[in-house]
Fold this protein.
Amino acid sequence: MKKAKHDELRSEYRREDLGKGVRGKYLKAYRAGTNLVLLKPEVAVAFPTEQAVNDALSSLIQVAQHTAILAKRPSRRTKTVRN
């Protein structure tokens, strides 16, 4: 079986049936990219909307950053000298 040339359409297709092509139609969306995350069903029930997930994760990030700052601080305890 011969391979078709890349610049030829198959006989069952006609160029006029395919419509007018638009160069770069999806370029902006492609460059923006997407970040698709699949949630477990029990998590999806707790966070039914995109906004709910984003709010929860933003709060978690803030808590983690605050905890990291507290962990870096020196302790306030004074050292006691024992004899």
